Records
---
Amino acid sequence: MPARNEAECLGDCLGSLTAQAGPGFGLGSEWEILCVDDGSMDATRAIAKSFTGVTVLDAPLLAEGWMGKSAAVWFAAKQARGAVLLFTDADTVHEPGGLQRALHEREKHGVAMLSYSPRQVVQGFWQRALMPLIFSELSVAFPPKLVSDPSSPVAAANGQFLMVEREAYFRVGGHKAVAETVLEDVALARRFKRKGMTIRFRYAADAVSARMYRSLSAMMEGWTKNLALLFPQTFLLALMKALDLGLLLGLPLLLWALPKLMLMVWWQKALIAALWLRVLVRYFMRVAKSHFSALDCVLSIAGLPLFILLLARSWVHHKLRGRVSWKGREYPMRAKE
């Protein structure tokens, strides 16, 4: 687990991990927790050291060409002793018995990589409005069924829960092979598939939850870093979302305004109403793929302008500025990104 200034959430995460110990854990094997303090300037290190059974490592100085997270977990992976490695984030909380069930699931399906998309915990209006939009688009761009299909080239993983067979991980080069990649989890999954290794990927509210962001500014910085990479057709997606916004709000306005400006017969009004209903149904069928609550899906309409703004902002940072920021560090975007 990499941890850089994670004092707000680290305690809950480590508490949920240390509570996993018990008879039969890990199919009878030994287990360990390695937490890498990546230059934290808050109480992260002290919190990690307060947990019995947690080994706290200090990340090495960040070398040129490395993203901070990849450097931290690669450093830990080389010291880990397990036959199975789990990479997870400090903002996650793991359900009781979740790791044991994940080990059984990986064995049952015979996969080299098992990755879960956690239940996302959101707080505040803007998180509730924006996150369903992004996760619904992710479910369309990276359908779990295709990711888990060995015959499909579609590959993805979520770094919040990424369990791999140790030997397979080092055979593909591990995080060292994706050192300069912002989306290290997706890049690693692609390497697994290209080497003919199997992946299982699914939404797993039964196993793990995550609260990705604690503030609006952190959320904006995080998605500015990722959106242009997750959705290469950035401007096309922004245009589609702008069209959604225009139709969802414009058609009712048209229905209200046109009768005041011109004579409309009943079938013309019915046609506009039917079109709006069709747009509404299509929109909610798509955003429901996010696995967020019905209320959050309704609020997501208000999040459309922010989503459009962040798509444009991410494109500017990647394509024009050539740099992104995250957790107090700036990273150059290289051509192969």
Note: The first strand starts at residue 2 and ends at 3.
---
Amino acid sequence: MKNKQKPYEIIGKKPATLKDFKKYLPIYKEYGVLVFRDFFNGDKIFEKYYNDISKLAKIIVKKKKLKLKSSLNLNQIITLISKKHRKDIGYIYDLGTRPLKLVSGINLKSHPVIQFIVKSLMLKNSILATPVLGETLHIFPPGKENFKYNLPMHQDYPYIMQSPEQITSYINLGKIQKEGNGGIKVWLGSHKEGIVASRIIKNNKKRITKNKNYFEKKYIAENFYFSRGDFAVFNSLLHHEGIQNHSKCTRIVQLIRYSNLSNKHSISYNWQSTGEKKIIKSIEFEDVYSQIR
């Protein structure tokens, strides 16, 4: 028996105009998430970035003199590397993270379809920007030693700042595995609570929603798993946490955030992002929201 399709999960026709997209606006407002299955497969901009990452992974394979089967896809190649050379995966991670360095990745970030969807979900007269820590190429290889990279329940915005009217987009590069591939757990509709308090866990400096139990009791949780070419947009105030990868293969996804600089809270602190203070002017969540405890 097939699972019933969820209202926030779009399978089939891709919205091409605002008229097509309007029916999804109340769904996004209600749940804080939209998932477009098989959205980017075959898209030239997406495929170029996927191929560039794959080529870089193959260069590492050759450099380390590993045996590579021609049939392996990207997440299988990265899994092969991770077995003996986990550190080298970090070099690929860095090319897609804070900021995107590959030109093909920059082109994906400015993809007209992504911009259309993001702007459609923002308030009118929005001014789009991307925060300093706006891009992350998440790579989760198999193995318990990698579980530490999964974040507990949190909102993205306190990590990133720039504007509370912010969208996190998921562009999925890895082919999903049959069991335990990992993903994200989301508390549907929790974004409607607005900006809430979080505390920093001392031993690993990760943020966790301070009133976690409240959200667990009030909102329905949904586990999201993604495959190659799936595209999702999440409100950055939506409470969520990582789901560990218990499979034997890697999960890989490109995250890109977009902010609206017309937001009044964003204007109040001059659109500053969280970032490296030695390099660029930056701001921390507590600098602006000290009253939220």
Note: The chain has a mean pLDDT of 91.
---
Amino acid sequence: MSIMANYWAAKGWAVRLFTFDDGREAPFYALHCRVAHVSLGIAGESANPMQGIIRNLGRIRTLRQAIQSSSPDAVIAFMDKTNVLALLAATGLKVPVVVSERNDPRLHPIGTVWNWLRKWAYRRAFRLVVQTESAKSCFPPAVQRRTVVIPNPVVLPPGNTTKNNQEAHKQIISIGRLTPQKGFDMLIQAFARVASRHPDWSLVIWGEGDQRGPLEELRDGFGLRDRVLLPGRTRDPHEKLRQSILFVLSSRFEGFPNALCEAMACGLPVISFDCPSGPREIIRDNVDGVLVPEGDREALASVMERLISDENERKRLSSRAVEVTERFALEKIMAKWEQVLHDAVGEPGR
């Protein structure tokens, strides 16, 4: 979302970004100076269903007022529940609303009521944008007819190059929220299978989340406190990737994993579970990375050991991995988004 807002702001478009937070913390991702960021102060958990209904009605009212005050040509909403609220808020305003799913709907439950509301509301969206064909297939035909598949762009910082092997340490890297979805428990278990045979290698998992405690306990149970590191969040993932030799995505499910694309763009050989959805549409198996059967810890450990032991194989995969920057180039992906907006507005030059 920040990449899209920055891209259009740099082109001179008027972009207003509404977020539900209260604005007390600065955005984690840097925004272009021309992006008007407005914190609506409507986030928060509800103690019971009745309070949830009341709060969501308030969110809809606040969001509707924000949309009306900005008089946009179009609205783009991100993520399931926010999509529903945006569609309800824009009812009757005659503003086209494009909604965007960022995960696999089959494996990311949002509750019975929200799921029903999503099915009802998405029929009223101008377009639904999903990141993979697999995600598109989750929705009924009436919604699929309004659906466009647009993957994420792969963006590297200005002047960034592929990794410098002279700077790299003998470490496997992974990046993501410390949540069950990301499967870092399986990654630690797989690494534990090969660790004793490769004592000079370590595993570094960048990210933060509510699973930190269980993951540290699992790591310590294998006696790997000094070799499996969980240093927290990083604002410079590309630098951390360049310092590593191998990237692993161990997710149970995905939407379109940015970290995997970034690792490939930095020239790392990558391994990923063939989970739904995303990795199969990014990795060309045994060409620019390796896909492992979903959830198979033994298979993951086997491929990790193979690539740890075979530098030539790592170089072969690395040489093709960087092609991801061409396949998912920013200009190519943003052209797809602009076509959606042009269709919504009805005037290609507007």
Note: The chain has a mean pLDDT of 93.
---
Amino acid sequence: MIYEFPEKTEPIRQGDIFVGIPKPEIELSQGLPIIDEDQNIETVPWMEVAADEQPITVVLAVQPVTAIVLTQDCDARRAADITLCQIRDFFDVERGVSKETTPKKLIGKIVSQSKVNLKWFYLPPNNRIGFSERMAVDLLTTLRVAREDLQSLIPLRRGRLNAVAEDHFRERVAYFFRRYAYDEWYPFGKDEIEYYPNYATLEPSDLFPWQR
């Protein structure tokens, strides 16, 4: 399998998989419940907090999630903070693949979709690492943890990617963050845009002036 299980004494590396990583849940549109000096709680709009530019103490919902270390090895040894990406159920991350399909079609879809959707990295099931289902690294959902704090959470490290998978993960991450994102339908004229394969998913506001 593509996982390894390092000793607790081994340093944190890119590709390490942790459970119980805190993911803050913030809804700025609802305002922030701020705790004042008298320990009273008041909900304050974020724009007021931002304008004040002062540190605050808030009541914050935090969800423990599974995540993988994104930070490169050299930085993971000395940087103040370490970046991780959340790991979620594969079928929640890649909505273009049906869970009910046959194993043959499913494997084919995973391979084909991984070439066109660069926003995830596939992780197969493995009971020892705690994945009873197919999972995926959601590269759009990043988390930051202080390096010393993450070091204290080493008992929550379930494993890491092996050399083959880690090389692929590193390149996947690098390509994802340096890719040029563009609207692939932009070159087509008004008489061509309707033939764009995903035309039905476009909103009128998605079209460029020369396509309307």
Note: The chain has a mean pLDDT of 92.
